[in-house]
């Protein structure tokens, strides 16, 4: 019964098509408008890996095995989160043309932008897998535990979506949230275990892996992709709870503030 | 249930007040520094308590002097603005049109056609089918893959109008639309308006030209200073409006 209703809705409504169309255009605008195209999506993590490799492996000698793979997966997840949040703070203003003339649901604007970022992420993930599996020497290789990455990634998508909604709605009321969020994410990068050894990170900042939802996601992604281990379940559950709470806050704000965006922006 | 389904829009006890603050309290810094000094807000009642409904397939007129609340009412009925009180049931997709539809200047004409068509509720296949009509009607065949930021304002208006004409939403709000383009384009616009919109679509027409309102609308709403003075027979509404203008 439920499946029939959903099927019927999908067949009659053009919502899914519309989200996909908007996502494709968003993706094209981001990557094909510059000369380097999709290569640009890869140059960013590669240049970051280069810098952090010099700093943390060559100079500080952290001694993390397969440090490039370790950094690669951490950085592409972090960059995905940043693109979904910092990149969408002004979305209600830049995409105003979509909702100021019609009764289109604003959530579709968010979903299409997140979807565009997911396409970009999938390219990064593809190159990570190629590097980890075939180039990096002395790794364990992928195992069936890698399948856990699907729910972990869905988790970060939900958290990113929620932050995107929350921040863009705060932007309606306070424009300098853009600058404030840059500071918050700047700090967030260094209180996430992206470039540090996990045991050092946990010893220096006890509890940070539970307070910072992205930290848990990075730790669990490495467990399932690099170390053939299942996720740390308490971290996983924590992050799911974060996602649910943040989505609820986002929905509340979208209903309270977002619904008046066309008057205020 | 079937009686309810005959309505395109049912608005009950709706009202709208705008708050205009004199100081710019739109940053976190300002808000923190002025926690105990809230901004002086001026309340402007744009629409006072009113109820009205629009039947499916009907064409109604909205008349009133400048500042009477016509634009606010169309935005509320289209679901673009949120009402402060009461409720509005909208049955279908809506489109608010004054000199074109919403388009992104970063996108090409082709992309804008697909995005706008999709936002108006069409499937990709349906847009494919009317794509050529839209392009030819807008007379923009040679610029189809050009970003519209390079278009002249006339070209943008023609494209917007053409998308609206050919795609159209279930409920169309037309705010002084007969001012688009040159004489030749206007003639075409009126022709299409008469042949496709008046038949089959629900139309809310806003105009200061009484001839247009009287020609296309059986029922009209007359607004004055945010109040719905009269809603019913168009001739009576026009009479009231003209009397007010004397």
* Gap between N and C termini of chain B: 45 Å
Helix content of chain A: over 70%
Strand runs of chain B, count: 9
How many helices of chain B?
A: 9
> What does the largest sheet of chain A look like?
none
Task: Output the radius of gyration of chain B.
Answer: 20 Å
What best-fitting shape of chain B do the alpha-carbon axes yield? globular
Structural class of chain A: mainly alpha
Radius of gyration of chain A: 19 Å
Features:
heterodimer; A: 265 residues; mainly alpha; 14 helices; 74% helix; B: 246 residues; alpha/beta; six-stranded mixed beta sheet; three-stranded antiparallel beta sheet; 9 helices; 9 strands; 28% strand; globular
Polypeptide structure, described:
The complex is a heterodimer of chains A (about 260) and B (about 250). Chain A has helices spanning about 1-10, 15-30, 40-60, 65-85, 90-95, 95-100, 105-135, 150-175, 175-190, 200-205, 210, 215-225, 235-255, 260-265. Chain A contains 14 helices and no strands. Chain A has about 260 residues and is mostly helical. Chain B is α/β, with parallel strands linked by helices. Chain B is about 35% helix and about 30% strand. Chain B contains nine helices and nine strands. Chain B has helices at about 1-5, 30-35, 70-75, 110-120, 125-140, 155-165, 185-195, 210-215, 235-245; strands at about 5-20, 40-55, 60-65, 85-90, 95, 170-175, 200-205, 220-225, 225-235. Chain B is globular. The mean pLDDT of chain B is about 85. At the A-B interface, helix 2 and helix 6 of A face helix 2, strand 5 and helix 4 of B.
In short:
With 265 residues, chain A is an all-alpha fold. Chain A has helices at residues 2-12, 15-31, 39-59, 67-85, 91-94, 96-99, 107-135, 149-173, 177-190, 198-204, 208-211, 213-225, 233-256, 261-264.
């Amino acid at each position: 019964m439920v499946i029939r209703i959903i099927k019927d809705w999908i067949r009659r409504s053009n919502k899914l098509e519309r989200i996909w169309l908007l996502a494709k255009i968003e993706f094209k605008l981001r990557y094909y408008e510059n000369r380097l195209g999709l290569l640009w999506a890869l140059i960013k993590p590669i240049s970051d890996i280069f810098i952090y490799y010099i700093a943390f492996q060559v100079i500080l000698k952290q001694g993390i095995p397969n440090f490039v793979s370790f950094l690669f997966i951490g950085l592409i997840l972090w960059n995905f989160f940043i693109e979904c949040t910092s990149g969408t703070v002004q979305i209600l203003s830049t995409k105003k043309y979509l909702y100021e003339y019609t009764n289109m649901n604003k959530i579709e604007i968010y979903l299409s932008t997140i979807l565009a970022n997911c396409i970009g992420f999938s390219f990064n993930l593809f190159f990570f897998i190629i590097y980890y599996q075939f180039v990096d020497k002395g790794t364990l290789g992928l195992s069936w535990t890698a399948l856990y990455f699907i729910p972990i990634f869905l988790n970060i998508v939900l958290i990113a979506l929620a932050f995107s909604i929350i921040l863009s709605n705060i932007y309606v009321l306070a424009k300098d949230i853009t600058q404030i969020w840059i500071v918050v994410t700047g700090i967030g990068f260094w209180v996430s275990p992206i470039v540090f050894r996990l045991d050092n990170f946990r010893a220096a900042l006890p509890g940070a892996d539970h307070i910072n939802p992205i930290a848990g996601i990075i730790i669990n992604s490495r467990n399932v992709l690099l170390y053939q281990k299942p996720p740390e379940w308490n971290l996983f559950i924590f992050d799911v709870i974060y996602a649910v709470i943040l989505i609820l806050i986002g929905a509340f704000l979208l209903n309270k503030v977002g619904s008046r965006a066309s008057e205020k922006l | 249930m079937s009686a309810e389904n005959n309505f395109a829009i049912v608005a009950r006890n709706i009202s709208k007040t705008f708050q205009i603050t004199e100081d710019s309290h739109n940053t976190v810094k300002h808000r923190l520094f002025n926690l105990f000094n809230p901004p002086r807000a001026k309340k402007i009642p744009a629409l006072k308590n009113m109820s009205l409904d629009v039947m499916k397939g009907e064409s109604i007129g909205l008349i009133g002097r400048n500042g009477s609340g016509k634009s606010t009412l169309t935005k509320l009925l289209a679901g673009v603005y949120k009402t402060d009180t009461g409720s509005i049931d909208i049955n279908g997709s809506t489109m608010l049109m004054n000199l074109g539809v919403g388009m992104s200047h970063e996108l090409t004409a082709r992309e804008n056609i697909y995005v706008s068509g999709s936002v108006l509720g069409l499937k990709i296949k349906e847009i494919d089918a009317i794509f050529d009509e839209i392009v030819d009607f807008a007379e923009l065949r040679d610029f189809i893959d050009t970003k519209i930021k390079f278009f002249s304002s006339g070209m943008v208006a023609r494209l917007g109008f053409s998308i609206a004409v050919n795609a159209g939403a279930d409920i169309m709000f037309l705010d002084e639309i007969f001012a688009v383009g040159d004489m030749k384009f206007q003639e075409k616009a009126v022709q299409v308006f008469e042949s496709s919109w008046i038949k089959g679509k629900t139309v809310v027409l806003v105009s200061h030209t009484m001839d247009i309102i009287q020609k296309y609308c059986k029922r009209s709403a007359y607004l004055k200073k945010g109040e719905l003075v009269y809603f019913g027979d168009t001739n009576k509404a026009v009479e009231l409006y003209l009397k007010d203008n004397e």
